[in-house]
Amino acid sequence: MKQREGRIPILTYQGIPLWRDDRVIKGVVQVVSAIIVVGFLYFFISNILTAAENRGLALGFDFLSEAAGFPIGESVFIQYDPSMSFGQAFAVGLLNTLKVSLIGVVFATLVGIIVGVARLSTNWLLRSIAGVYIEIVRNVPLLVLLFFIFFGVFQQLPDVQNSFAIGDLIFLNQRGVYMAWYLTTGSTVTWAIILAAAFILAMIAFVILGSYQVRTGRSTYPGWIALGILIGLPIIGWFILPEQPLNLDLPVLGKFNFVGGLTLTTQFTALLIGLIFYTGAFIAEIVRAGIQAVSKGQVEAAKSIGLKPMQSLRLVIFPQALRVVIPPLISQYLNLTKNSSLAIAIGYPDMFAVGRIMINQAGRAVPVFIMIMVTYLLLSLTYSVILNLYNRRIAFVER
Amino acid sequence: MESITPEVLRPIRTLGPIAWLRRNLFNNWYNVVLTFIVLGVIYKVLIGLINFLLQANWDPVTTRPVLYLVGQYPAEELWRIGLAVFIISFLFGISWGNWGDLVQTFAYLIIAGSAAAAFIPSTIISVSWPVRIFFLVNITLVFVGRAVGRSRFGKPRTILILWLISLPIVIILIYGFAQSEFMPVVLTTLWGGLMVNLLLAAIGIAASFPVGVILALGRRSSLPVLRWFCIGFIEIVRGVPLITILFMASIILPLFLPGDIRIDRLIRALIGITMFSAAYMAENIRGGLQAIPLGQYDAAKAIGLNSTLTTLLIILPQAIRLVIPAIVGQFIALFKDTTLVLIVGLLEILGVGKAILGGNPQWVTSQTEVYLFVAAAFWVFTFSLSRSSRHLEKALGVGER
Fold first, then answer.
1. Contact in structure between B190 and B73 (CB atoms under 8 Å)
2. Which residues is B348 bridged to in the sheet?
3. What 3-state DSSP class applies to A241?
């Protein structure tokens, strides 16, 4: 810095010394941090490359087309057998992860809403029971819960011959859960079209009648009429069609095992139940907080304009609570998806468990790990994109 | 919006038992129905529970209590863990005397646990006399600590420093010294049980704190290299499950290191846990940083502090105070997550239960009891933690401004 001329030498401005100059500090920190980051990466990558040379550690992804050679307990969409490739085995694992996550998300939301609303019930007993459930489940690790459900409950079930039965519909035993399911017939497709048409018609009726009611003030009962269409049309279709569109398929005890119906493995069921009840408890707290976040004045205002309790819940409380509820809810969905990786502890073949076997079978720890991490990151990214879209939408509505 | 003026207290009205029932259970027809349905469910569950408890065989738990607590730690060295427990109990006593409500739950937990161990009938769990006396001394220590905490020696700053130095002391006590007759090294392969869960969670949260602070500051930094590195680290770690991080630390990390470096299995798990926890810690602290009003920065500038000093002296202390409850919540979650190290082969309490069942086929029908016990053990800890976290939020006045 140039020394400036002044009349009184004592007050001469010396300039900022280098070590206190913000720009200099920032530049130095920038360079140092860059060197540290690059240095770390260089250290790790050079090590892995030497390890690859010395210990014959392969890094390529070419093994994905080789035959996997190991069995996988269950699969959806892909009929897997060990002669298929590693890539297909990984896809089976991914589909299993998606299957348990998607079903889990739906049911966890249901459990969460029911328990969250029950937590605020005017009924003391119901309120307390909901509280006890939340406090028990939230304070126990998910892995312990899964062990308890899988080893402590499912493995202790009776054998096939002495299955625990709920009517003729559901049978529980050590091997799995056998449920009544449906069989498709020749008329199923036609009936599905009728169902879809009924849904669309009901929506149209609801909107038109609703707007008519708002315009004229005359009661047109849009909800009842829409419900009637939604239920009535499919019922009529059911009886008019030449064949019954769906047949009930009951599980029947055969010589060695149950035949017919829907079979769920104990691994899948235990994981699903664990994820549902664990995440459900967290969602319940989110729902409760969301409902409580709606200010009392809103509820009182709804009452004062003559809305019934259900109406005020549907038209006033829920839309406002939703804004508070949705963001943490989506992060719970993400948690559930990530937590499904605990499947490996009870033997459900999700993506992580299949990846783990692939590491042993193919000896490619690094590539398989990259695949697993990238897939989970993509799943997280999907959730955060949904969250951002939602946030943008409600930001629009906000005043 | 909460009102600023304190609420006027309503006159306290007591209800008779019948009026209470009327109001809370039978106030309209659907509540009557609900009450009976819930009563039916409770009845069913209670009957099932009683039936289970009558037939339950607790042998896998009661015959091996030491395994669940400390794993295969050699019996002749157990006094070291006892000493560590004394230190912790004494510190909890001091904190109880000084901070009151905040740590009260833990003090009660230590007292109740010690009393249970000291007075449990030998027919249930055989506990030797020295051990019973040890637990009685432990209870006394809590009260002695409480008295010290209330005296003029108990100052919050002193207590915090004592806590900070206690962690390394406890670890050294448990690990021991190389070439020492008196306190030989106990390899981490012999560590196990609840001790490992507690150690992993405590060290994990302590180690992830500085890393989290650096990551949080880095993420808000104006320097692009630093910022993008921090964002990348935080988002990648938060986007994948803990198990993948643990596996990476225990399987992939050794590949990334030169061939002659071997890291202990427990340390590898700890590295994974710390990385994972640091990413979440960084986001918590960032939340605190964002809550600091801009006026604080201006004021710091006005009194002539540069950006480093502003951050260290003005911003961070306030931000950290704001996020203490969130950090306690993270500690609870981390404590629960320590069970996952079982998947990379460490014998924490759940792993001990599994190993005991695996080694004793005669107990194959008692798996329910074992996992119920482990669940109960976790529940006691995490429930008291979340209780005291509520006291903490009140004491700090977070969310009330």
1. yes
2. B193
3. coil
- The two beta strands, A262-265 and A170-173, are unpaired
At residue B152, the pLDDT reads 80
- Tell me the nearest-neighbour CA distance from A186 into chain B, angstroms: 42
Summarised one tens digit per residue, pLDDT across range A250-307 is 888 877 778 877 888 999 999 999 999 999 999 999 999 998 888 889 889 998 998 8
Structure pTM?
Answer: 0.87
ipTM value: 0.89
**In this structure, what token pair is assigned to residue A55?**
């210990």
For residue B94, give the nearest of B138, B156, B137, B164 by alpha carbon: B156
Within 8 A of A141 by CB-CB distance, chain B residues are 336-337, 339, 350, 378
Q: Could you say which of B340, B365, B372 has the minimum Cβ distance to residue A148?
A: B372
Instruction: Give residue-wise pLDDT tens across range B218-250.
Output: 998 888 888 898 999 999 999 999 999 999 898
Distance CA B294, CA B176 (A): 49
- Do the strands A246-249 and A164-166 form a parallel or antiparallel pair, or are they unpaired? unpaired
pLDDT at B10: 66
Give yes or no for a contact between B393 and B339, defined as CB atoms under 8 angstroms apart: no
Determine, for residues A339 and B244 on separate chains, whether the beta-carbon distance falls below 8 Å.
no
d(CA A291, CA A293): 5
For the stretch A383-395, pLDDT in tens is 989 888 888 887 6
| Nearest-CA distance A257 → chain B (Å) | 23
Q: Which of residues 10-69 of B touch A (CB under 8 A)?
A: 24-25, 27, 31, 34-35, 38-39, 41-42
